[in-house]
Amino acid sequence: MGCCSGRVDAAIKKDAKSKESNHEESESKPEEHDNKGDAHNPHSEEKKGKSDSHKEEKKEHKGEESKKGPEKKPDQAGGHAGSLIARGDKLLKRVGPAEFKFYTSLFDEENKDEDLIELRKFVPKYFEVEQIEGKDYLVLENLLTDYDHPNILDCKIGKVTWTPDHNERKTADQKKKAETTTTGSLGFRISGLVVKDEHGAVVESFAKEEGFYGISPENIHEFFKKIVGEDKKQVKKFIRQTGKIIDWFKKQRSKIFFTASVFYVFGKNGKSQTRFIDFAHVYDAHGKEDENVIQGLESVVEIWKRLL
């Protein structure tokens, strides 16, 4: 489900039953452990009593969680391993303070910035903050809800992926990635990909460094094709949807984004969507156009056009 792509991308309602019988699928539920404590320990009746009490607390807690839907690992299409929890039509995301601040301010009812209000329709919807084991998670819209075995493509946007806040080591690392991937040549790189067959089995998948070093400006369209096949109608739809995000960037002067992603989803039931995701590095634009993101998104559109 950004950089950050990581990033993604996510959990599918209609796959829930098939996941129970197919443990190799990336969306499958993690095993629920039956926390029996020391109930089977014959050496301590006192400990057994405490365990029984603990079990009752667990049952009560589990009952509360069941109202929110089962928790499971989402499809991995980006760099979010361990930071995402899929729960029905919601996605819980563990984020840093910058992304936390961005989401909460973007969806704040008191936010009167017209540009940012319009941005809401291009990003995952934000609901609330939830604490899990003392850590804050954003509760976001699950972009994979009601899709039939979706294919996912996550593109990290911008030639410049290092920020003023990055230290020398991080900056050097990002510059090296730009030189050795399509970030430098095209202004974006594929940072996540999940391809499934008609039965929901994952036939190809990579996230972050696992795969993008083998992608070049000459063959990158072949990876785009993996999620749409020969469906030119869907290609045109992705182009239109991406174009709307570009239009927003060309008129807004509120924010600039580093290491954000454009996230594509295409299900076997024909449903699809395009969203802008991952906001760990967002800064005030001070009236300037975000050329870095605009050029990257326009480059993505040009690659889609190769499939027409």
Describe the protein.
By secondary structure, the chain is an alpha+beta fold. It has 2 domains: 13-24 and 70-141, no CATH class; 151-305, Inositol polyphosphate kinase (D-amino Acid Aminotransferase, Chain A, domain 1, 2-Layer Sandwich), CATH 3.30.470. It has 9 helices and 12 strands. It has helices at residues 16-21, 45-66, 97-106, 114-119, 168-180, 182-186, 220-228, 232-251, 291-305, and strands at 71-72, 84-87, 90-94, 126-132, 135-141, 151-157, 188-196, 202-207, 255-258, 261-266, 272-277, 281-284. A 5-stranded antiparallel sheet has the order 1-2-3-5-4, with helices on one face. A 5-stranded antiparallel sheet has the order 8-7-6-10-11. The chain has a two-stranded antiparallel ribbon with strand order 9-12. A hairpin with a 2-residue loop joins β2 and β3. α8 (232-251) runs antiparallel to α9. It is globular.
Sequence stretches where pLDDT stays below 50 over 5 or more residues: 1-67
Spatial extent as radius of gyration: 21 Å
CATH topology of the largest domain: D-amino Acid Aminotransferase, Chain A, domain 1
| CATH H-level superfamily title of the largest domain | Inositol polyphosphate kinase
Distance between the termini: 27 Å
Let me know the largest β-sheet: 5 strands, antiparallel
What class do helices, strands and sheet pairing give?
alpha+beta
| Number of H- or I-type helical stretches | 9
- Based on the coordinates given, report the CATH architecture of the largest domain: 2-Layer Sandwich
> What share of residues are in beta strands?
15-25%
Number of strands: 12
Query: What is the arithmetic mean of pLDDT?
Result: 81
User: What's the structural domain tally?
Assistant: 2
Fraction of residues in helix? 25-40%
For this structure, what is the CATH class of the largest domain? Alpha Beta
Principal-axes shape call: globular
Query: SSE order, as H and E?
Result: HHEEEHHEEEHHEEHHEEEEH
Main-sheet strand order equals: 1-2-3-5-4
Region (Disordered): 1-82
Pfam family, one: IPK
Keywords: Kinase, Transferase
EC number: 2.7.-.-
